[in-house]
Design a protein that fits this description.
The structure is a single chain. With 180 residues, this protein is mostly helical. The chain has 9 helices and no strands. The protein has helices spanning 2-26, 36-43, 46-49, 53-73, 79-100, 104-109, 120-125, 129-138, 141-160.
Length: 180
């Protein structure tokens, strides 16, 4: 009887420790402890590209939340320096990505192993108001406010430096071009 109890206890410990190890191994690195270069290198690996779409999105949300939280914790004198650092990193990433992906669209279009998701853009564009509200309510309102301040300040700093901001402005649905 005692022998079976020991066998069961050892088996349980092995199963639990294996599950914990598998969780930490499959969860990927912590973006808060990574530099921008490390993040870009990780994004280009097969480990990252084999993750499900939701896990990739979660990784990028963690990256942005880390930047937003760092920015909100800085003193007013340090904030422009941090924004300049982010802008410089974005500029270098943009030039690296542009150089590495010259024929990206053609490679993706003709890759027989690629299975495009037909719902990628339609899912967010055709969301019902109740679904949009539910998505918004899942997010911490204080974090959302910090993110809006961060992105508005980032756009303003880019314009101060004479750099055209990328992407649509917060709260509007039209693409943003160079400052007029």
């Amino acid at each position: 009887m005692k022998k079976w109890t020991v066998v069961i206890a050892v088996s349980a410990v092995l199963i639990v420790s294996g599950g914990v190890a598998a969780y930490f191994y499959s969860s990927g690195p912590n973006p808060a402890k990574m530099t921008t270069d490390q993040i870009m290198k990780y994004v280009r690996t097969d480990d990252f590209n084999s993750l499900p779409r939701e896990a990739k999105g979660q990784f990028f949300r963690q990256v942005m939340d880390n930047r937003v939280n760092t920015y909100s914790s800085l003193s007013p004198e340090e904030k422009p320096k941090y924004l300049d650092k982010i802008i410089d990193e974005m500029s270098s990433m943009r030039s690296q990505t542009r150089a590495q992906n010259r024929n990206f669209g053609e490679r993706q279009r003709f890759d027989p192993n690629r299975r495009p998701d037909p719902n990628t853009f339609r899912n967010s564009r055709n969301m019902k108001p109740a679904d949009r509200r539910a998505r918004r309510e899942q997010r911490d309102p204080e974090q959302g406010a910090r993110a809006r301040i961060f992105f508005n300040d980032l756009r303003a700093r880019m314009q101060e430096r004479g750099i055209a901001p990328m992407g649509p402005p917060m709260g509007r649905g039209r693409p943003m071009g160079p400052p007029q």
